[in-house]
């Protein structure tokens, strides 16, 4: 495996893992600005866990969603996918740290370390896919309601939490791809060596003739 690719993949995966942790508690997954009306509330924003509002004086009021079962299906799915993303990223960071060549963990068995690093790449890919699916599904519902002319409820726009999630998913997929390609290159280099048979299994023609002569002798042939 290429050590440079390992370092790049670990950096990308670690950054994506940190960004997932920033995106989950971010309150601005969807934002509705209603400035110019006669009511005092100026901005309403929500995420996966709560709904908040801020008035013209800058006072924030937040309330958590009362029941998980009463939420929309896409919010419940987005929650599960983001939690799965955090778990996958944690395993990806640990496996990559153990499988790196410059790491002392795992001993000197580089074949095993390469497989562990490849497993870390798979976890990073899972993290990126879960994050991208969660953010894209959430954004799809926002845009669907926004462009629906007969939608009776409050319309929202895409918030910064979704952009952070998309960036995190992109970095995770890039990091996982780097690890997978690094493992692939390492396999090709190992399989390129020519086959060399053991010296003990090579028999020459002269040795076989001597064995025949010593067994039968010179007078054995007419």
TrEMBL record:
It is a multi-pass membrane protein. It comes from the Eukaryota. It is found in: Cell junction, Tight junction; Cell membrane. Gene3D superfamilies: 1.20.140.150. PROSITE patterns: CLAUDIN. Signal peptide: none annotated. One of its GO terms (cellular component) is bicellular tight junction. The chain crosses the membrane at residues 7-24, 80-100, 121-140, 160-181. InterPro entries: Claudin (IPR006187), Claudin_CS (IPR017974), PMP22/EMP/MP20/Claudin (IPR004031). Keywords: Cell junction, Cell membrane, Membrane, Tight junction, Transmembrane, Transmembrane helix. Pfam families: PMP22_Claudin. GO terms for molecular function: structural molecule activity. Belongs to the claudin family. Claudins function as major constituents of the tight junction complexes that regulate the permeability of epithelia. This is Claudin.
């Amino acid at each position: 495996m290429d050590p440079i690719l390992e370092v790049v993949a670990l950096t990308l995966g670690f950054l994506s893992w940190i960004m997932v942790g920033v995106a989950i508690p971010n309150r601005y997954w969807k934002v509705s600005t209603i400035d110019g009306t006669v009511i005092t509330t100026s901005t309403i924003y929500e995420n996966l866990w709560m709904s908040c509002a801020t008035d013209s004086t800058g006072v924030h009021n937040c309330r958590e969603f009362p029941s998980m079962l009463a939420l929309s299906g896409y919010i419940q799915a987005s929650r599960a996918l983001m939690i799965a993303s955090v778990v996958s990223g944690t395993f990806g960071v640990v496996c990559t740290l153990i499988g790196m060549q410059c790491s002392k963990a795992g001993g000197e068995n580089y074949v095993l370390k390469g497989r562990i690093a490849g497993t870390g790449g798979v976890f990073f890919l899972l993290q990126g896919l879960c994050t991208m699916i969660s953010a894209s599904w959430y954004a799809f519902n926002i845009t669907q309601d926004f462009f629906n002319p007969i939608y009776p409820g409050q319309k929202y726009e895409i918030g910064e939490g979704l952009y952070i999630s998309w960036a995190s998913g992109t970095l995770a997929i890039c990091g996982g791809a780097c690890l997978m390609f690094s493992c692939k290159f390492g396999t090709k280099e190992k399989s390129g060596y020519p086959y060399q048979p053991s010296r003990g299994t090579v028999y020459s023609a002269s040795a076989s003739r001597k064995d025949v002569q010593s067994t039968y002798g010179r007078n054995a042939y007419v």
